[in-house]
Amino acid sequence: HVANQRGVGIDETFDVMLVRSRPEDLGYDTSTVSRMKDTDIGAVEAFLADTYGVPCKRWLGAAWAAGDLGWIAEENDKIVGVAMATVVGTRGRLHSLTVKADARNRGLGTALYRARLRALFELGAEGVLTECATWNVAALELARRHGFEKVGAMYVESARDARIERKLVRR
User: By 3-state DSSP, what share of the chain in percent is helix, strand and coil, each rounded to 5?
Assistant: First the structure.
């Protein structure tokens, strides 16, 4: 454990999960979810900054430049969800799925999840990894519904100096 600049660091615990074969049902609404394009980057940056409350331009630019793949969910021509993935050799990785709070519980997270999984397996992935924060019940449920099993744990230090209180509620 290494302290942050204020002398305190907060660790987050993540379950590392793996699906070893392509799940059977990977259908999703292609009129709502689509592959992110270069022309979407500005709108995605704005969506992520608004959602997370911090600038995301450098992170998104680095991920995009490194070859990460992205998907967006849109309603009324506005981005309401974003998800990223990467594939290296025969291993895929899902990361960074977020859906705007007022657009949740309508299947958009599931659609973004399925779009990424389908693409990674079509690109030759023989297995796909993801990491889910142990407090994120919705993410853990989504992963399990798609065949992911816990294969390990990971601990990530945050720059925050206090834990964020989270309600573990599933709507």
Answer: 30, 35, 35
